[in-house]
């Protein structure tokens, strides 16, 4: 019966068994068991969690054809499915269809639609929805603000990304490490290393525990200002805090040394990576090569090339 089917499809949703949930829906149709909104919502959610946006929309269409009275839940699941499939226009179409059904979008609805626009680098649409959210007095959360900031960093005005932070303060939303990382990336993408350094000090004075991603973003920001000393200080601080810079962090520091004309520091960083049991990547080697080439250190260049050949990276 419908109760048994509801339980089975809900179990598929929790287990991300999207294909099984669709099979159960088909079985219900063949047995002429009436589908309700709960069954459809669970199936759409299973497809969303499984990254199957087309299947999610197919179930959503079935729900509409059967004229089932929808709630905001299946809409949110379908919007999220389209967001994961980078189908920003479909996400917006579903979002605005909520009003046609006299349903009020909630924080989840807005976050999914804003994320869809952000993932597609539609920063203006992300900002518009963020403002619309405020006008509707729908509560934003830290995820909302972080996604809007990231959208501005990826394709929009970097200043707008930083303007979100004071708005968060007004809304009494505490920034997360991801929020601060978006802010650091905004400064770095605009080549404003002074702002990045000032922003980093603000981040350090916050109560948010910083991660390697934030440190690495700050290191990258040092490149434009040729702040090689600062980049190495940040790297040392990470190691003292037992944070792993990873290949990204070490390569970023080597790149800063390269742009600063510090070829010896770049080579020392390569050696340091090996001491830390980190195999330099092609990017790491190329930055060191460029540093040596800038300073006409051909012997060091040949030494790096020999090491690259030995590791088959050339």
From TrEMBL:
PPR repeats lie at residues 36-70, 106-140, 141-175, 211-245. The keyword Repeat applies. The keyword Repeat applies. It comes from the Eukaryota. InterPro entries: PPR_rpt, TPR-like_helical_dom_sf. It holds the Pfam family PPR_3. Keywords: Repeat. Transmembrane segments: none annotated. NCBIfam families: PPR. PANTHER family: OS03G0856100 PROTEIN, OS12G0638900 PROTEIN. This is Pentacotripeptide-repeat region of PRORP domain-containing protein.
